Each structure stands twice: as C-alpha cells, then as structure tokens.
Amino acid sequence: MAMLAIFGMALSGCGNQTGTVVAEPIKIGTILPLTGNNSYLGQYIREGIDLAAAKINFGNGINGRKAEMVYEDSAGDTAKGVSAYQNLAQTQNVKLFFSSLSGVTLAVAPLSEADKNILFNIGSASPKISSAGDYVFRHSVNTDEEADFLAQSIYNLGYKKIAVIVENSEGTQGPIPEFIKKFNSLGGEIVLNETHNYGETDFRTILGKVKQKNPAAIVDSSFAVSEGNLLKQAREMKIFTQWFGFYYSGDPKVLDVAREAMDGIIFSQFFDPSSNSSTTKNYQQDFKRMYNKESEYNSALAYDGLMMLSKAIGKCTDLPNDCIKNELYKIKNYDGATGMISFDSNGDTSKEIFLMTERGNVFSKYNK
Question: According to the model, what pLDDT value does residue 6 have?
C-alpha cells in the first residue's frame, strides 16, 4: 500500500513534510500474531504502527532517517516469538523491537534484556512485564489500577455476589488476583471462579455452573473470540445476568462474534474513540483516511508507541540503546491519541480509566 500517497498533504500535524528522507533507515523489529487465533490483534497493532511510520517518514523521518518496520509473525506462540526475535537480532542486526501478547513478550524479554535491546510491548496485561527488565517497556493500562477500579465500580453499582470466568493465558489471568483481592476487601463475594482453556469455544459446561450459582453479575477476562462465544452462548442458555469485562472487552472482534448478545456489557477502558481531545480527533481523522474505518484501542496504543519511540530515538546520536532507554523513561505527560502518557520506573504507562458499554453496535462511555 502506498501509504504516503494516501495522505499527501492532508496529514494532521506532520511537521516538516518534505518527503526527502535519504539516509540509512532505522530498522524496528515488530513481533506480532499475524496468523493464528489472535491474528486480528496483530492486524490492529500493525495498522497503528504503519500509520505512525507513514507520518514519521512523510516528514523528515527520525533525524533524517526513515523508520523501517520489519515484521515477524509470532502466531501467538512463545517459541515462534523467540525465533522471530533471534532472526531479527542476529541476522538483521535489529536493536529496537515491538511486541504484543504477554506470553510472547515474557519469553522474548530475557533475550532483549541480555542484548540490551529495547523491547516495547503494546497492550499486554500480565503484571510480570513490569519486572521483565530495564529495557522492557509497555504501553497499556496499569493492570492493578484497572483491577481495583473495576472491582470498586462493580461493588458500587450494587453487585455484591459475582462469578468470575478467566481464559488460561498470561494476559487474561494478569488482573485477576488483584481484582479478587480488591473485591473481597470491599465485602463482595466470588460465588464461582472458573478457568477455561485458551482458544476454547464451547462454554456450556461453565455457563451451566453459572446458572446454578445465580450470581448478580458475571466478570469475564477472556480474549475476544472466547468472550464473544461466552456472551452468545449465555444468551442462548437464557442467562441474562449483568456482564462485566476488562479493557479487552472493547475489542470490536467481541462484537463481531457476540452480536446482539453483547448489548449491555459494562467494561473498564482507557481509550475513548469519540474523545474531544484534538490529538485523538486528528488521529482518528488520519486513521480513517488510511483505513476507511475508526480506530479501536490497540491501533491507538501502537500508534502512540511508535511516536514515543521515535521521539526518544530522535534525542540520541548513533542510536545507543542506553540513551534511547533513558529518553523513554523521561517521557512525561506526552499528549497521545490515547490521552496523556508518562512512563514510570518500571517502564509502564498509567492511564485514566473509566467505564464503557455497548448498545446497538456502538461503544460509548457508561453512565448509570
């Protein structure tokens, strides 16, 4: 796709639009699930990264050098993720990386840390990433903050007895211990805590147990396809209990699978696609121009991620990774598509969290 031609002079806030980047490009390895169960997630992230790269390269690049994204497919598999990293680092001398999915990131992190290569994760939820290394960064919501917020919100809305359903993966399990701890401390009761296998699609046995327990609400932490099937099968089994989810419930793929069974879900979120922020509006305008659709949160996280990485790279001469690492830690109150962004001492970002809902195929902020 000739991305630069799509935008032309219409890009919002591009700065110096000379299109004259001629120096040797800066290679950035990007390890995503481009095939397999989570290929839709890889596509979201790639769209955000490609948009950011187009904006960067349409101007003066990064200090006159083009950002060249080199994609490798992890297929959501840790071994393939490690192999992708090794191929990029050893055969192509790549020193800057993006990744997604908690399991893949945690498998690659020891290698990038040993090599002192930047590993920038997009959107993963495992708390383990916070301590994965000094060269490991993550752009997402703070997992513990989100867990506490959702537990408090559910309790405040009057749901005191709940069932919890969790997919067996690093990311989806990530917020659950803190969520349960917080909900119990408020005086709430978990009447059922069920785990299902990654990629599972038949949930009638679990939902039968839910029906027997008759909780006031159901809290699910599953990837999009699983959650969509859970919602759909719950409706088929005439379970109309209030459904809650974490930020990944805002993935349009859940709606693709669940359709009308998703109506009324309430979930925590940090990205408002209809925000009045001029930065978010400009981002959505450019995203729609390139892809003819509105952005969801993964693309926005990825877009901000590459823009912030390029900002850090631009402050360093000859690209020593120690310098880039230090410049990333210095980023505070960056005005991004996903709001104001600052990195903490663990390389994590923290965001404003709020409740959203879905009605009639539209995601919007929740108001009681």
Answer: 56
Cα of 147 vs its chain's centroid, Å? 16
In the chain the domains, ranked by start, together with CATH numbers, are 3-141+275-341 (3.40.50.2300), 143-269 (3.40.50.2300)
The pLDDT confidence band at residue 368, using thresholds 50, 70 and 90, is confident
- Give the CA angle between residues 257, 260, 262 to the nearest 5°: 70
Q: Is the per-residue pLDDT at 318 higher than 80?
A: no
**Mean pLDDT value across the chain:** 93
How confident is the model over 159-186, as a mean pLDDT? Answer: 97
The pLDDT confidence band at residue 23, using thresholds 50, 70 and 90, is confident
| Sign, CA torsion 275/149/305/250 | negative
